[in-house]
Sequence to fold (884 residues):
Amino acid sequence: MSRSSLWPWVLAAVAVALGVLGTVLNVLAGSHGEPALQWALGAIVTLASCGVGLLVAVRRPGHPIGWLLIANAVLLGTFAVSEPYAAYALQEQPGALPGPEWAVLWDQSAWPLLFAVLIAIAFVFPDGRLPSPRWRRVVFAAAAAVVVFLVLSFFDSAPFEAPYEDVDKPLPGLPGVFGLLWPLAFLGMLAGLVAGAQAVRVRFRRATGIERLQLKWLAYTAVLVPLTLLVCITGALATGSGDDGDVFTVVFVFMLGAIPTSVGVAVLRYRLYDIDRFINRTLVYGVLTLLLAGTYAAITLLVATGVGSGSAWPTAVATLLVAVAFRPLRARVQDVVDRRFSRARYDARTRIVGFLDDLRAGRAAPEAIEPLLREVLSDPRLELRFFLPESELYVDARGWPADDRAEDGRVRTPITRAGLPLGMVLHSLVEEERPGLLEEVVEAAGLAIEIARLRVELRRQLDEVEASRARIVSAGYEERRRLERDLHDGAQQRLISIGLALRHAQHELGDSPERAGESIDGAVREIEVAAGELQELARGVRPAQLDAGLTPALRELAARAPVPVQVRANGERFPQQLEAAAYFIASEGLTNAVKHSAARQVTLSAERLNGTLAISISDDGIGGATPNRGSGLRGLADRAAAHGGTLVIESERDHGTVLTVELPCE
Amino acid sequence: MRVAIAEDQVLLREGLARLFEDGGHEVVASLPDAEHLPAAVAGHRPDLVVLDVRMPPTFTDEGARAAKQLKEEHPELGVLVLSQHVETAHAVELVSQGGFGYLLKNRVLDVGAFLAAAERVAAGGSALDPQVVASLVSPGSAGDDPLAALSGREREVLELMAEGLTNAGIAKRLVLSERTVEAHVRSVLMKLSIPESGDSHRRVLAVLAHLTAAQIQY
Fold:
């Protein structure tokens, strides 16, 4: 245990020791001591403040609340000693103990310190900081009031209050003029209390969710304390009686007890400062240690009686058994402790485990993990995002890219599995409520999330395949339409006009046979043109050169192109379908290069590469081609995908375009 | 006969013009699209307009729409629409108005029949391409096909009636006597429950109405 974590224990021990000492003195003081009930009340308040303070100070040594609570307990302890000390040494057994006048002085003058601690708690609860930097001035003013009040109290020239009016004051009294400061200091302290209440109120109004619940109790107390105090004072002033002792004591005890209790409620009930986990761990390991130590002792004893003492066997066997038992035992104990002390954590884990069982048995769809997480973490705004490594996109459960604005106030917690990003959880701020619960639940649900992610990925790929299939079908339909148009408007009309020319020639044979020859010549020329058109059309359907192989087909393609085209291919043959696909990809790529990239030189290449037929079309044009602009590249990608291949586009602006398609050819 | 031609393909347009001129008709206008056709018709007052269904700018049904418009503006004008392929819907809708013809382009090569059909349309008669008629007359799959009651010869007569031919024309085409044809026509009309009429155009309408109604049934 380090030095810093030792201090809370030391101070708490001091507080407890003072309380015990005070109790002894109170008993000794007999009838002059405090009544037992009142004493017990004071003891409970002291112990509560001490316990909560100790818990917080050990867990969060850097946090002032723990220290303030312990200070409160130590202060209460000093009063627990000073009051019966004076009663015993001055009334029950006069002269029995030294310096009783100091005890009276402390008892009657130091109480503003208690207010100071309570105001400080009100100022900094729960995060340990002031509500805003502007509050610093208020703190200084309140501190000044307390200091003045303390000085005035300790150096008051008036005699002690009853029953110690006759006791000599150990400190000199201040001149009478300082008496003028009394009302000022008193009002200053009162203002400090009101300011403390106001600080809590401000925080309470700003707070949301769990922080609001944590503040609720303190907010009530903080408002009630100055109110009650005011009522008492006005009551005392109105009646003019100085005998307000009973009422004052009740208010005082109520106030002293209420504030540590509210802090305690916030800490324990609303899991402030992560204390519940701490208690949980302590319980688990405490029980575990006891169980294992017991087992160890029992086995050692048992085996030792069997084989005789002095042997190393009992120790070895016991160690082995205890080591083997550790993990399952820990899980069991944790389960029991969780069920008893961390219901939410236990429930969440049980639900997730049950869900995973359902998932394995096929009773649940992995996508149902999202609503389940929402329910288990009671966060209706929770959503899962799945990471798709291929497109490096985050998508929702439907597979649509998520358009999440950073300012929607949700926290993004990444989910990883085996070091790889799986996705992320978008959730409301619940961290203070159940620290670590989200991470724990998400980790437990990792398998389901991974499966859901794979399914989303698969669905997206299927959608893409479906879309590309639809595009291929519609491209095929477009192609047929174009062919129909070409045949009807081209070849058919030309043939009809040839027919008409021949009819005309037939007609001319009667009137002017010499001109019929010209008409027939014209008709024959038309037939030649028609034949050329049909040939071109047929090449569009499937180039005859492909029969000779991909390389000659590409060379013919290059020869007919309107720009210089270089062909790099070694004449290797591939399966017919593959050659046809490669040819059309090259043809479309070349058309694209000529049409869209203002290329002056194009290179077509086709070669076998790592079990694929790699076709590349590179030009020296303007670049900047993307698969989304212009359906030409989309069509190419579809054609490649239809053969199980891939299309890669390198097209930096002003640096030309290289299209590379790899078609598997094993 | 004064003829106006609208056809986007130069060779075909010229061929058609020569065809009509060789047949002794006068071609008063020859246009590459349907856009200026109404003006040409208003200016030259032709007896017959021959036009292509598909023309610029969209190459869909410019000709058909122009034909309809011309017919509305000049009910007495004969309009002959030429098409690359059978489009039954257009064909029937247009022909049932009378003074309308709808023929496939291939028909122009049978010069005699084509010119006869063109003259018939110019005179207010009808001309429906045999392929269109065939697609209407072809038996449906249902059992109660009214045409099933017709004999082979009667069916031939019906088709020629639908094409718009007169009894004399049918007799000539089928190489039968006109009396025999008359008997067949009576029998066909009776079997299809169509009232007899001396007007060949109204007869065509009745037959077409019957056939299209039958078509819709199937």
